[in-house]
Amino acid sequence: xxxxxxxxxxxxxxxxxxxxxxxxxxxxxxxxxxxxxxxxxxxxxxxxxxxxxxxxxxxxxxxxxxxxxxxxxxxxxxxxxxxxxxxxxxxxxxxxxxxxxxxxxxxxxxxxxxxxxxxxxxxxxxxxxxxxxxxxxxxxxxxxxxxxxxxxxxxxxxxxxxxxxxxxxxxxxxxxxxxxxxxxxxxxxxxxxxxxxxxxxxxxxxxxxxxxxxxxxxxxxxxxxxxxxxxxxxxxxxxxxxxxxxxxxx
Length: 250
Description:
- The protein is an alpha+beta fold.
- It folds into two domains: about 70 residues, Beta-grasp domain (Ubiquitin-like (UB roll)); about 140 residues, Molybdopterin biosynthesis MoaE subunit (Aldehyde Oxidoreductase, domain 3, Alpha-Beta Complex).
- The chain has five helices and 15 strands.
- A hairpin with a 2-residue loop joins strand 3 and strand 4.
- The C terminus is likely disordered.
């Protein structure tokens, strides 16, 4: 049977391609496929304790059995009702969006506000002009887009379920960003400020660890992929996957 493998973030450069179809035997599990890919692309082994795997846009353990047509993504550590103000052409769910245009944070904050709200708390992540003593020229953000949008919506829904807030809106920008531009914007509305602060902090901290979005930093003397934060414990890591000695069919 045939599955599709997607290489994301810096793994795309290591593999030399964004994705490829791969023939696997019936009954193959995700870990066996990953182990075979490491044999074919040895550079992947340096990430074996940091890469997460996703099947059809959901994080997956290595024992998940594959089926015809599945999409398997190799995910390195991540860098990180729509208001009427939503920008045309963006990808959006009820509470989240990915955009390729400047984020209009002021308009989003006004749109989310309702008479019953006593607080609107905002996090505005801005591109700074330096990183670890090096002058930054610009950043470029890329994402596993469908999964990223799905994960952002799930974060918003979890915040609504677990914090005393009325509404939340999460927007992340992709593509090239100049110094001073917003990369991520989170607005949380609630009756009381404490809940809004807590929810906003939880969303950005969790987004930076789990949502498959990567940042490449461009400096005067070169470019690097930003170091990602470790995945939280609930996200399974590929680890030392092994190929079965018989019956893999690769």
